[in-house]
């Protein structure tokens, strides 16, 4: 332990730099891989959607796990400001991922609902309780 109360010395600093690089380089790289898979799939008719989805899930995990791990390393190394900064960043990233997931689920719920389109000339009962159609 050093005199200023910090533990770990250079290893904590190297760990924080490494996790920050993984966070700032890994997340965009995985996201761009997902976009490339999606574009490739749009060009080719028989593509595996699971591959693009896997890259998106990996990007979301790295986006949240890297700053959370850095907050843990900073906390164990008694770097208070870094622990707070990485912890707050992890919380913001988690909220962002959850918001994107919620928007994605809302879109799927709308698509899953069956839609009934009656054929031309078909009479549909509306409010009022009777099934008489105007003109017939």
Radius of gyration: 26 Å
What is the helix/strand order? HHH
Binned strand content: under 5%
Biggest sheet descriptor: none
Percent of residues in helical segments? 55-70%
Number of DSSP strands? 0
Shape by Cα distribution: elongated
Calculate the terminal CA-CA distance, rounded to whole Å: 92 Å
Helix and strand content put the structural class at: mainly alpha
Separate helix tally: 3
Mean pLDDT level: 82
Q: Which blocks of ≥5 consecutive residues have pLDDT under 50?
A: none
Please give the structural blueprint.
Layout: H1 10-43, H2 49-76, H3 80-112
Helix pairs in contact: 1-2, 2-3
Keywords: Membrane, Transmembrane, Transmembrane helix
InterPro entries: DUF6234
Domain DUF6234: 13-133
Description:
This protein has 136 residues and is an all-alpha fold. It has one domain (10-109). The chain contains three helices and no strands. It has helices at residues 10-43, 49-76, 80-112. Helix 1 (10-43) runs antiparallel to helix 2. The mean pLDDT is 82.
């Amino acid at each position: 332990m050093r005199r200023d109360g910090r533990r770990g010395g250079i290893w904590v600093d190297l760990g924080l730099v490494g996790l920050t690089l993984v966070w700032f380089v890994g997340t965009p790289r995985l996201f761009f891989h997902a976009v490339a898979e999606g574009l490739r799939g749009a060009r080719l008719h028989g593509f595996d959607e699971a591959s693009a989805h896997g890259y998106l899930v990996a990007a979301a995990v790295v986006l949240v796990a890297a700053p959370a791990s850095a907050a843990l390393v900073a906390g164990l190394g008694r770097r208070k400001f870094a622990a707070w900064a990485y912890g707050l960043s992890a919380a913001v990233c988690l909220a962002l991922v959850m918001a994107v997931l919620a928007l994605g689920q809302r879109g799927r719920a709308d698509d899953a609902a069956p839609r009934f389109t009656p054929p031309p000339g078909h009479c549909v009962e509306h409010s009022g309780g009777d099934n008489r159609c105007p003109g017939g």
